[in-house]
Specification:
Blueprint (H helix, E strand, L loop, with lengths): L7 E4 H16 L7 H14 L4 E4 L12 H17 L29
Antiparallel strand pairs: 1-2
Bound molecules: zinc ion (ZN).
The site of zinc ion has 7 residues, from helix 2.
Length: about 110
Amino acid sequence: MSFFTRPRIRNANYDKVLYYVDKMLSESDRYCRCHRCRLDASALALNTLPPHYYVDSGREDDKSLGSSWILIEIAVREALERVNSAPHHERPDIAGHDGPEAPPYVVVDTGTEG
Ligand SMILES: [Zn+2]
């Protein structure tokens, strides 16, 4: 973040959840890795965790904010299982299929710009 960026309100759990979704998807081929399933799992996990808002002035990079990693892991694992059992698309026939061509992985942040 540049020096001139205005401080923003951010949810510390947001970055943690996205990080953990990608971590689990890279470690297991059990889950669909398409863009939609990533977003669905991220949204579900974020809805089960309390928000942890803070003001990001661009100077600190405090990874200690937000829920503990064990809570993040539990929320993400449960979300991935739910999405896996009822994806918003037809199931791919081939194992390891990455799903429809995905746009860059972008999730609309919550609790910013206010
Ligand atoms: Zn999918």
